Amino acid sequence: MKVFPEKFLWGGAIAANQAEGAWNVDGKGVAITDVTANGIAKNIHDQKVESGKFYPSHEAIDFYHRYSEDLEYMAELGLRCFRTSISWTRIYPTGEEEKPNEAGLKFYDELFNKMLSLGIQPVITISHYETPLNLYHKYNGWESKKLIPLFEKYCRTIFERFGNKVKYWMTFNEMNNVHTIPYAAAGMDLSGDYAHQLLQVYQATHNMYVANALANRLAKEIMPDAHMGIMLSLSQAAVYPASPNPKDVWGTLQLQRRTFVSADVQLKGEYPGYVKRIWRDYKIQPDITDDELKLIKKYTSEYLAFSYYRSSTFENGMKIYGDTGGVVGKPNPYLKDSAWGWPIDPLGLRWMCNLVQDRYGCPMFIVENGLGAADTVDSDGKIHDQERSDYLIEHLKALGEAIKDGCDVIGYTWWGPIDIVSAGTGEMKKRYGFVYVDRDNKGNGSLKRIKKDSFNIYKKIIASNGESLFES
């Protein structure tokens, strides 16, 4: 029995703000991530680009100028798809221009043309932690409904321009992270007491649900053959009770629902009762109109894309916080941690796939999964990253088991197949790639690319359509 579907989308994933660099080139405006020097996980950022300050993402790995070379590596790997994002501020520098920036559109035309020439399908996130900084300053980002028509205009522009090249789209990256990293996920800061912060979170996510529905409506109009999905962090939902204490179990479910709500609304088309109870309990009511609810109901999304890096544990009463990898919980004595303290849990990926299948019955796309490690070039000039190869193999075996369980998985894109700037910490030292980039945390290095040992491991897996994973 063959495990992975014949047309399974083997791929890799990056984000524009972590790879492209060229932060102010060819008319690009300033995005929220352009003013974060140490990553986005702590919601710490400047109000503007400070002169003389080092921002790792400003040059990143210079993918903007080197994408052709980098995509050749991806083709050598055998990738069938490549996920990246369109930088909103390359198209609309402040988010409010009447006409788009042609230089930005031209860049993505050339990028997608290169992918297609290599037989690689573009998989595109429309907004991946790249809200225009201007919209943060003027409206506190997605807390305001002012962003909805601006996002719709942006979507219309890119759908009309790239709709004949891109078939797989996701609107927002890890929207459920608005709870934990609101600046990155929604371009906003939280203020006031806990009830007011909850109101801000639910208002922002509602506005994004409306924008998602409008994007789905536009897609049906402009590119009816396209596939429109949502993207969530399921590391936020992969939470185990810390004990059999019923309060731990119940609290774990409540924590998981912070993720499920985004899928419930955008895949099922309506708000679940548990959210309405939260609003009643905290005496809050987001500004939601009947017309918006009808729009959300009519224009649901087709598939659930998600990131999965790790699982966590929850104990009743503990303070909940998270980062780009998911919720940070109590240590799990049954799991080994990575060098950055992230539990390694392949079975958790199988669990999440089955949970999605049981709850939504829709196609799913694992668009982020990977291991950050401090790789070094050995005396032989090579990078021997056995830990990454082991992580890849074990997670893909778990994914294969999920497919055998009956889960409708359409693809898998490793994060990121080439070293990029870490979103959570702003480091280059925390490396994920199968291709090494000579760049350090202070911006030093030649940017030379070197294939790691894991490169050939993934290449072999793809060439066999995953069958090599199950050879005895």
From TrEMBL:
Coiled coil: none annotated. It comes from the Bacteria. The active site is at E368 (nucleophile). This is Aryl-phospho-beta-D-glucosidase bglH. It holds the Pfam family Glyco_hydro_1. GO terms for biological process: carbohydrate catabolic process. It comes from Pediococcus cellicola. Belongs to the glycosyl hydrolase 1 family.
